[in-house]
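The protein record minuted underneath.
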Amino acid sequence: MSGIANLLIILGFTVVFIIIIVLVLLLLYMIFFDRMQKHHAILRNYPVLGRMRYFLEKIGPEMRQYWFNSDNEGKPFSRDDYEHMVKSSKYLRDVIGFGSKRDFDEEGFFVKNSMFPKLAEEEKYDRETKVTTKRYILLKDPLFSQREEKWEDEVSSAFLLDDEDAVIIGPNTKNPFRLKGLIGMSAMSYGSLGKNAITALSEGLAAAKGTWMNTGEGGLSPYHLIGGVDIIMQIGPAMFGVRDSFGEMDWDELKRKSETPEIKAFEIKLAQGAKTRGGHIDAEKVNPEIAEIRKVVPYKAIDSPNRFYQYNDVKSMCDFIEKIREHTGIPVGIKMVIGGTDSVEELASYMKETGKGPDFISLDGGEGGTGASYQELIDSVGLPIKSALPILVSTLEKYGVRDRVKIIASGKLFTPDRIAIALAMGADLVNIARGFMIAIGCIQTMKCHSNACPVGVATTDPELQKALVIDEKKYRVVNFLVTLRKGLFRISAAAGLESPIHFQPKHISYKDDKGIVTSLEDIMKEVNGQIGSRQ
């Protein structure tokens, strides 16, 4: 027995000795190598401390996200924002306790509550349509081990609009697009997101009913179609998916796409909030499947120009829209960003003069997201949605064409109160992208542009995509959307409205940092005055 003990002691000392030798050799190598290299100044003078500095710098974002940022500090979404989306998608619940974490000394918008709110039974929505989903029930949440949860079936109201309140896009087209849900998925391309992510979104949105998904400018993939959800197919300047070998519009292919039962509308992309230029996809992401979908050459980097070659003014753009509408028989809209009070003056004027123009306008705020863009464009080009919406609405009203076009707003509208404010400003519908990404597992690593998303959302890497289990994440999409709709009716009732479609500027107040309150009505009148004063 003592022999075995002596052997273990000797073995232990040997292992410790080897570890020490390895560490010493590694330290000597670092000192010699780092002092000799010519690329990093700090390593030449402080090789060991320099290595520690780079390590701490590398893990800095994660440390700030999980430890050092307060609940309301993180960007683009704070910890509170992120957890709110995760919990509603995972647990089909959005209840919090104790009190708000909002800083009420800061300026901001507030929904006016009614002295006599609507009762639950007075809310006007489709009470017949149900959705079948799954949600987690939290059983235990211990400190040192994984939380215990139960995965159970749930049947919920879909919280869709009443039939007579449905929003109709392109009522004068051959095939109008009728919607009973006010919230849909903003443009996200296959290639930017992986097939598991797009599939989970398609199946989840279809199960939630009454909504839509936008393909993004990357073309229509089989994964967008897999759930059977209604689709708005986006066409960017490179015309991926409907282009010929020369990059021009393939009108026969466009017609074939329009005959796909799920495609209800086309959207011409002029710009998006986070990148008022074209898109880019690296060569390694252009696999044969993506190349076939986009009608491009495999494994060759592709760029989408910052505008269409086919037109360069409002007249030629509207002619292009008219040709697509006549060729396909379905509604055609545009996606745009507003940069100032005169941004849509020419379009609205031309619509009045000719009767031409889009059936809907997707207005994207500068705070919107993207898979990849440039800092100067993300931060400083294009107005945020709460500034842009009043300009668009006021300009269309000035020329008497507001009723001809539906407005879809987007830009961090991921909670019912934000959506209610956008509706009061004049939006008819709302698009969400990153909220749905978070619902299917996004943890905000900010690596969307690198194809290295660790949770399998914004990547086409087959190994990384394995992390995203479709049959679980699709239910989170359902839960997130249903929770938003339910909250939207709840906040409408608090404002004395039977449905969120009745939100108007008079239902919203704005409080400045001094506590002075202004009605959104007065703000809209001021914007109207600015728009109306221009000749």
The mean pLDDT is 89. The first helix runs from residue 2 to 36. The radius of gyration is 27 Å.
